[in-house]
Amino acid sequence: MKRKLRILCVADEVDLLVYSSQINERFADIDLVLSAGDLPDEYLEFIASMLNRPLVSVAGNHDRSDSPRDRESLRYISDQQRPGLGRIRFSIKKESGISILGLPGSIRYNNGQNQYSDAWMTCKIICMLPRLLIRRLLFGRSVDIILAHSPPRGIHDGGDPAHTGFSAYRWLIRVAKPYYFIHGHVHLYDLQSLRELNVGDTAVVNVYGHRVITLLKEDRDAG
Q1: How far apart are CA 205 and CA 151, in angstroms?
Q2: What distance in Å separates the CA atoms of residue 123 and residue 97, rounded to the nearest whole number?
Q3: 162 Cβ partners below 8 Å, 6+ apart?
Q4: Where along the chain do its domains lie?
Q5: Secondary-structure class of domain 2-218 per CATH
Q6: What distance in Å separates the CA atoms of residue 128 and residue 89, rounded to the nearest whole number?
């Protein structure tokens, strides 16, 4: 049996279609909110509180440092004020009946916060492989959604050093087999720009501004 979830995804820019008194009318059917990073905490709190839905996010390269101290502060805010509002960092979170793998940050280009080399990200994901492979054996896919700030290399990424994607994300998609790989980081100013590309059975989606996706999930998948 399949479950249908409507998910509001946001990233990179405060979108006035979302940050509006009409948010409840526009997004009345939303079950979950995902943030792919580089957004003010106040904006995310507004969305979560107005829609009264859980929100899961990852840090972008312009967000506050992803240091342990900052993560503890975010966790406190999440637990005390907005259940479900908080970042996931190289971990899997179960929310609204789906599993989400959070991958923060961008490629290193000026040694700023939440920036990683391509080699470092590859090693980090290799360390996660045993758990991901076990979950794939059990559920047919490792996770339902990969929520990242940056895109995979060569898919929706930019031609400049700051917006190059991570090469490890390409084979991670093949290993994990998520329904969606959600990312931001690359700004889209042309309404005709390509936002979504299928890689096997996975839809890679740039959610710059906002994007609503629909996930049809088998109850046994990626528990």
Answers
A1: 9
A2: 29
A3: 106, 107, 109, 110
A4: 2-218
A5: alpha beta
A6: 12
Contact 7, 56 (CB under 8 A): no
Distance CA 181, CA 146 (A): 5
**Per-residue pLDDT at 80:** 37
Strand ranges of the sheet holding 202-206, from the earlier edge strand across to the other edge: 91-95, 98-103, 145-148, 180-183, 202-206, 196-199
- The pLDDT score that the predictor gives to residue 85 is 55
The pLDDT, as a whole number, for residue 218 is 73
The series of mean pLDDT values per 10 residues for the chain, 223 residues long, is 90 96 96 96 95 95 66 41 66 95 96 94 97 96 97 92 96 97 91 86 96 85 60
pLDDT at 1 (0 to 100): 67
pTM of the model: 0.90
- β-pairing, 145-148 vs 98-103, is parallel
Q: Are 209 and 15 in contact (CB under 8 A)?
A: yes
Q: Mapped to the 3 state alphabet, what secondary structure does 110-126 carry?
A: CCCCCEECHHHHHHHHH
d(CA 32, CA 158): 28
| pLDDT (0 to 100) of residue 81 | 42
Residue 199 amino acid letter: V
What SS3 class is residue 87? strand
